[in-house]
Amino acid sequence: MKPMNALKNKLLGCAIAAVLLGSAALAAAADAEPVIQAGGNVSYVSGGVGDESLARLTAITGEYNVKLVFARASGEYLSNVRVEITDAKGHRVVDAHSDGPWFLARLPAGHYQMVASLAGKAEKREIDVGTSKLSTIDFRWTAD
């Protein structure tokens, strides 16, 4: 019977090690480079929760021509904001959720409507986008 208990203990130890390694891998993935999403001739990335994420986004800001910033009127940054961007013809070019208070997009030059929604409250902005200059748009929500 003792060899069976020793085997169970070894298996239990392996299972615990696998869980710990998996947790470490998930933590490392959270610190990884931002994931750039692309579709057609539009690309975007979001984040900015924590100093490291903000530094990574700041480093690549020059590659984008639109920066959306999400916060409460008090200044508290927000994440998990739904972002919808439609072009002048009404075609939706972005439909995403922001992983943080910054949402960077590279859009073709043109006129766009941007809708950012948080907890059912939508804020709308219209913007003319150029190809190189960064346009920053702030979205602010009041607390309920």
Q: How many individual domains?
A: 2
CATH topology of the largest domain: Immunoglobulin-like
Mind telling me the CATH superfamily name of the largest domain?
Answer: Immunoglobulins
Shape: globular
First-to-last CA distance? 63 Å
Class based on secondary structure composition and strand pairing: alpha+beta
Radius of gyration: 21 Å
Short description:
With 144 residues, this protein is of the alpha+beta class. It has helices spanning 2-30, 51-60; strands spanning 37-39, 42-47, 66-72, 82-87, 92-97, 102-106, 110-118, 121-129, 135-141. It folds into 2 domains: 1-32; 37-141, Immunoglobulin-like, CATH 2.60.40.10.
Q: If you had to describe this structure to a student in words, what would you say it looks like?
A:
- By secondary structure, the chain is of the alpha+beta class.
- It folds into two domains: 1-32; 37-141, Sandwich (Immunoglobulin-like), CATH 2.60.40.
- Helix content is 27%, strand content 40%.
- It has helices spanning 2-30, 51-60; strands at residues 37-39, 42-47, 66-72, 82-87, 92-97, 102-106, 110-118, 121-129, 135-141.
- It has a five-stranded mixed beta sheet, with helices on one face. A four-stranded antiparallel beta sheet has the order 5-4-7-8, with no helix packed on it.
- A hairpin with a 2-residue loop joins strand 7 (110-118) and strand 8 (121-129).
